[in-house]
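Below is how a single chain appears once it has passed through the pipeline. First comes the sequence as given, then the structure the pipeline wrote out for it. We keep one example in the README because the format questions we get most often are answered faster by looking than by reading.
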Amino acid sequence: MFKIKNILLPTDFSKTSLTAAEYALELADEYKAKLHVLNVLEKTPPILAIRSLDLSREKIIESIDADAQSNLNDCVKKIKKIKDIEIISAIRKGIDYEEIIKYSKEKKIDIIVIATHGRTGLIHTLLGSVAEKVIRYSKIPVLVTTPPSKS
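Resulting structure:
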């Protein structure tokens, strides 16, 4: 029988990425599992930010890290308001899908719940999809959600 003890919810804090939280919460509640909320930052800040703000590289990195931690804390608070479950939050730096896969292995995650922006066509071809890459490289089940349609 399939037992879920650890669920991973990767997020970039967008409304779309947080739509997956509803599914992750239901699973966590049903299986009495821990919910891991993960945000992945780029290793290096955008060059434009450094030049346009005339700040040191270290100051930019500090600011980005602080913003990410603040957003992660807010995200966890919102989730806790919906259902009071055990949440483990983390921030990683690197290539998004690689860090998601790496984290899932390290923390013995049983299922990844991830939202997709639902892009198609040229934009999707050029940018790819984090969700698609997670599906491709994950050795565990991945539940992919799409944002509700705006009718």
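The first helix runs from residue 15 to 31.

See the next section for the split statistics.
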